[in-house]
Amino acid sequence: MMIIGCDFHPSWQQISWLDAETGETGERKLVHASGDAKRFYEQLAAPVLIGMEATGNSQWFIELVEDLGALVKKVVFCEIMRRPRSGIGT
């Protein structure tokens, strides 16, 4: 399984990934207008898990990768900040 963390911006995204089978990791900037993002995600073999912050202008991207078979987990930053602390490190 490929696990990808996506820092999504309107015109580009910064990604980091881990291939859980091989241990390979990497980082890359993908520019939307040039087609970098579409080409990158099209070449991935399933299963793929993408984690990203939920933003209003990312719906086109979510639909693209879900159509390619990826599972997308969206995180709302303000929800993370409101979660109770575990007490570890406090």
Protein model, in words:
The N and C termini lie far apart (34 Å). The chain is α/β, with parallel strands linked by helices and 90 residues long. The protein has one domain (2-82): Nucleotidyltransferase, domain 5 (2-Layer Sandwich), CATH 3.30.420. The chain is globular. The model has no long low-confidence stretch (mean pLDDT 83). It has a five-stranded mixed sheet. Strand 2 (12-19) and strand 3 (25-31) form a beta hairpin. Helices cover 24% and strands 37% of the residues. It has helices at residues 36-42, 59-67, 77-82; strands at 2-8, 12-19, 25-31, 48-53, 71-75.
Give the N-terminus to C-terminus distance in angstroms: 34 Å
Figure out the total of helices: 3
What Rg is obtained from the alpha carbons, in whole angstroms?
14 Å
Query: Strand sequence of the main sheet, in spatial order?
Result: 3-2-1-4-5
Query: Topology as H/E string?
Result: EEEHEHEH
**Poorly predicted runs of 5 or more residues:** none
Structural class: alpha/beta
- Rounded average pLDDT: 83
Instruction: Please give the largest β-sheet.
Output: 5 strands, mixed
Helix content: 10-25%
Secondary structure: number of strands: 5
Fraction of residues in β-strands: 35-45%
Task: List the domain count as a whole number.
Answer: 1
Oligomer: single chain
Keywords:
24% helix, 90 residues, alpha/beta, Nucleotidyltransferase, domain 5
Summarize the structure.
With 90 residues, the chain is α/β, with parallel strands linked by helices. It has one domain: Nucleotidyltransferase, domain 5. Helix content is 24%, strand content 37%.
